[in-house]
Design a protein that fits this description.
Elements: H1 2-9, H2 11-15, H3 24-41, H4 43-48, H5 53-56, H6 61-76, H7 82-92, H8 104-112, H9 114-121, H10 138-146, E1 153-157, H11 163-171, E2 176-181, H12 184-196, E3 205-210, E4 223-229, H13 238-248, E5 249-262, E6 274-275, H14 276-285, E7 288-295, E8 301-308
Parallel strand pairs: 1-2, 1-4, 2-3, 4-5, 5-6
Antiparallel strand pairs: 5-8, 7-8
Length: 312
Amino acid sequence: MKTLLCLFTAFPFVLSAQSDTSGQRNMIMGLVNYRNELIIRNPVGFKQIYQLDELWKAENGEQASDFVFNVTYAYHILNYSPEKIIKLYQKKVPDFKPTQLLTPEMIQIVAENDDWMSLLNNRILKPSPPFQIENQTTLFEELAFYKIQNGMQVAEIGAGDGSFSLLLGLAFDSLQIYINDLDKDAVQYAASKIDRCKSVKESNQYFTVEGKKKSTALESVHLDKVIIRNSFHHFSHQSEMLASIRQSLLPDGELFITDPVIKEDEIPDCKNAMKLELVRKSIKENGFEILEEKPVKDWNWVMFHCIPTEDK
């Protein structure tokens, strides 16, 4: 195992001579620490994920990504057994390949190595053994866009399993990070993920908040940054949610929305994805001005940098 650890810890020093971009260097160092923590915490699990080689070779990358997400969510949040997950897949996704993954053993490997799976599924690690850090990950692009600084109060709305909020704690110091989701089971799972991570910097504070359909439940908190990643298109009451966010932002606070959008001649990442012009319309009609709009490299996602308008 020493050889592996040396290989991974050498990575950040290759980039140390490059100019830092809003915590990129610190994030890389934090990711290396987190990788090493996961290996030391569960060396058997690290060896097990090699058995998922067929997943990383799957022709349909989105299907493979969905498989990892669905198994993790069903197992940890819905408390489904591997056998029930397999039956659901056979019924709902009859064309899923490779079928070798639809065994209780493989489902168990994905579920029990969920921290690894999150890094792989978000393309933070390269999707092939030995799963090194992906130096082209869009995570660095996002960090530069959000312009987070040490000591800020930051909220992630619709945070799901809390993976992105956890990563912020690897790169920055003295943040107050609010992890918000509508699903109370997801919030509890996010809290457990943070609790078991030893690589997050001790100066950071985490708070988990169960939101509502029309409210973030954070109106009494004063926030520098509010981030919505891959969740805005799922909001059933966008007007009310944006009004709630306005209430929690400091006078110079900022809102960032990073969401999949429907583009011509392309299959959307999610069936609920919105057309680009509709996302813009929703933001502008509900009290925010778009300062900057930027597509995410190699993804059907667009990042919006917004501030509250003065007339609402």
